[in-house]
């Protein structure tokens, strides 16, 4: 590789200088910071970035050919051809059809280096629904999630599920324990002022029926593992608890006390906040909805739009058996948390950041 400056395909100036990326000798433009890879150098650089890959051929995984671009190969002056990086990841890369050199703009380098992970992630996200998922949702009316598997064990999510289940079962099987548990651990707007702050936390672990418990725990398991993976155990626990407090306060604020005191139990306010966070951080995931007997995959924002609509309708028709303000208040709180912390979380989780780019194309229609 020459040590003198070479012509940049983007700037068309002699600003390419030799440097190293992933132990490969490359040329980088001093002006636009784009990178030129000679034939084979990009494949070796990608393989070096991933311990489980011995050899990689980026051409084998390229997406659609877009056509010839305006850039010329820095070696042979051939017009470079533009391709999508992957079939469903529409970052554009420039390849020379004659000498097989590759030009990457500055913002494309990270995405290309992570292309093996992106390819595997898209294969997972783009899976079709199956007869098993259809039968499960038909019988339970619960959605099925299409998302990446969490890297760390969601111990906090499991712990909350176990604690909620033990408290409910204890109230059912131990004679005389159910009402004292609700009186002390459920939230009561008429409880002594010194007890209410305690109840704002403990009501999140109490449930009123088997269906109440099973529904909440399923949704917690559905979205909690990925959020816990992104946040870490302790920050996730704090999010869960603070969200439950915010949701309870929203219900208390709009509660009509003329019909008696507010009595509230359940994790649904906390989980509603997790819905809001999930919608902001995991736009590439899918949740299924059953329309009569047809199961469809929806983007999280569409799924939670329908969920919010059901809650608003329930509140307007005067259904007093459900804490709708806690649901909607928790969801709004989660949206705020998700939006204000998104940039920081994305910087800490590279794959999440790449999958949240607008170039991704998640397949949700039936095939």
Name the strands of the widest sheet in spatial order: 1-2-3-7-6-5-4
Multimeric organization: single chain
The helix content, as a percent range, equals: 40-55%
Give the DSSP E fraction (strand runs of 2 or more residues). 15-25%
- Largest pleated sheet: 7 strands, antiparallel
What is the residue-mean pLDDT, rounded to a whole number? 93
Query: What overall geometry do the principal axes of the alpha carbons give?
Result: elongated
CATH superfamily of the largest domain: Rhomboid-like
Q: Report the uncertain regions.
A: none
Q: Which architecture of the largest domain per CATH?
A: Up-down Bundle
How many E strands?
12
Structural class: alpha+beta
**Count of individual domains:** 2
Kindly report the CATH topology of the largest domain: Rhomboid-like fold
What's the alpha carbon Rg, rounded to whole Å?
A: 26 Å
CATH class of the largest domain, named Mainly Alpha
What would your notes on this structure say?
With 367 residues, this protein is an alpha+beta fold. It has two domains: 16-118, no CATH class; 126-355, Up-down Bundle (Rhomboid-like fold). Helix content is 48%, strand content 16%. The chain contains 13 helices and twelve strands. The chain has helices at 41-49, 109-113, 115-125, 131-140, 155-173, 178-185, 196-202, 210-231, 233-254, 268-281, 300-316, 324-348, 350-355; strands at 16-21, 24-29, 35-37, 65-72, 79-86, 89-95, 102-104, 145-146, 187-188, 263-264, 286-291, 294-298. A seven-stranded antiparallel beta sheet has the order 1-2-3-7-6-5-4. Strands 8-11-12 form a three-stranded antiparallel beta sheet. It has a two-stranded antiparallel ribbon with strand order 9-10. A hairpin with a 5-residue loop joins strand 2 (24-29) and strand 3 (35-37). Helix 5 (155-173) runs antiparallel to helix 8, helix 9 (233-254) crosses helix 10 and helix 11 (300-316) packs antiparallel against helix 12. The two termini are 47 Å apart. The mean pLDDT is 93.
